[in-house]
DNA sequence: CATAATTACATTGTACACAATCTAATTGAC
DNA sequence: GTCAATTAGATTGTGTACAATGTAATTATG
């Protein structure tokens, strides 16, 4: 067989990398890497939240759990995990801290003793109104307009979906 | 004085939040929040890297340190930190692991005994060529074109810069 | 040149994040 | 109904992140 053979090899002759249009020597440059921009922007973002959430005693991941519960109270741990893309190893200790703060309760589901139902306390519900200033402050800190924020949100959602496909499938 | 007074009040009458154009009740919805899209995309991204870097025994933050050193060998801990937006509390243990893997050396600077110079070993340099497949694979996983990747990289870099301004200054 | 201030890094403590594993409860196959 | 397979959470171990603090070396000031 010649070197030009293109039989459907294992993970496909498929698409060439989008990087093919760039010199190979530039592939490993930090500032060319979208992933590093993503990673460092995400870390910086949590630093912006920190002082805002500290007033309530919350961390950013804890605040995310509260957001989910404010949308729909009383959800199981796995439902929270699906919504937030986090697993029980992360959520279990986090939820125990939220419980210790008296913002949520954790109760075994009587109908299915494997499940743990996470529900808001009165204090947890009260927190919703008080935390309206948080997205307000953070959105200002982004120095983005609302259309820009919406566009970025969609792009990052699409990116997450694409990356999830590559982890769950053949890769 | 009339209600129109615009004396420079504490943290300014300043700009209204970009969210002002959105119903208040939507501010706390998870899927409206760019920050959650950012956070979850970043976590998903590191999951894509994991199997690719595991071949070399590296984690994603460790890989970032290698990227910096491949661009410019022999840098101090604080230089690495400035480049990666990480502090010594994160880098010190991470660098010790890279040293244990024999990819870097850590040496006190003779000219300034406070500084620790991080430099590549031969194995660390060899890793550069071997890791060219990593950005190739990840860029495919994003399902983005090169112009899309470049645009996202710039947007996220701008976002990080804006967020950094809000943490360092008056906030 | 003595000492106060600063700088560079390390350490400690808290909180994620997640793979791997474990346990208990439920469901399925027969 | 019994036992295997599955499911839901919890636990364990490793590795970030980062605030706060500690220590040693360097620089600045008088």
Attribute tags:
homodimer; 171 residues; mainly alpha; Arc Repressor Mutant, subunit A; three-stranded antiparallel sheet; 3 strands; globular; DNA-binding
Note the quaternary state here. homodimer
CATH H-level superfamily of the domain at 56-127 in chain A: Winged helix-like DNA-binding domain superfamily/Winged helix DNA-binding domain
Q: Kindly, what is the distance between the CA atoms of the first and last residues of chain A, rounded to a whole number of angstroms?
A: 28 Å
What integer is the average pLDDT of chain A? Answer: 91
Beta content of chain A: 5-15%
General form of chain A: globular
Q: How would you spell out the order of helices and strands of chain A?
A: HHEHHEEHHH
Q: What is the class of the domain at 56-127 in chain A in the CATH system?
A: Mainly Alpha
CATH architecture name of the domain at 56-127 in chain A: Orthogonal Bundle
- Kindly provide the radius of gyration of chain A, computed on alpha-carbon positions and rounded to a whole number of angstroms: 21 Å
* Fraction of residues in H or I helices of chain A: 55-70%
Topology-level CATH name of the domain at 56-127 in chain A: Arc Repressor Mutant, subunit A
**Strand order, biggest sheet of chain A?**
1-3-2
Could you list the spans of chain A in which at least 5 consecutive residues all have pLDDT below 50? 1-13
Category by helix and strand content of chain A: mainly alpha
């Amino acid at each position: 067989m010649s070197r030009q053979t293109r039989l459907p090899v294992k993970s496909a002759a498929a698409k060439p990398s989008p990087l093919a249009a760039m010199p190979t020597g530039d592939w490993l440059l930090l500032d060319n890497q979208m992933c590093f921009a993503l990673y460092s922007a995400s870390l910086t973002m949590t630093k912006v939240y920190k002082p805002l959430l500290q007033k309530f005693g919350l961390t950013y991941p804890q605040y995310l759990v509260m957001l989910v519960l404010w949308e729909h109270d009383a959800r199981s741990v796995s439902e929270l995990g699906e919504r937030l893309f986090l697993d029980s190893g992360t959520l279990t200790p986090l939820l125990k801290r939220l419980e210790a703060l008296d913002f949520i309760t954790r109760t075994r589901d009587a109908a299915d003793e494997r499940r743990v139902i996470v529900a808001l306390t009165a204090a947890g519900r009260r927190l919703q109104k008080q935390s309206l200033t948080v997205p307000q402050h953070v959105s200002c800190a982004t120095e983005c307009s609302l259309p820009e924020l919406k566009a970025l949100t969609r792009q990052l959602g699409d990116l997450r979906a694409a990356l999830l496909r590559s982890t769950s499938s053949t890769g």
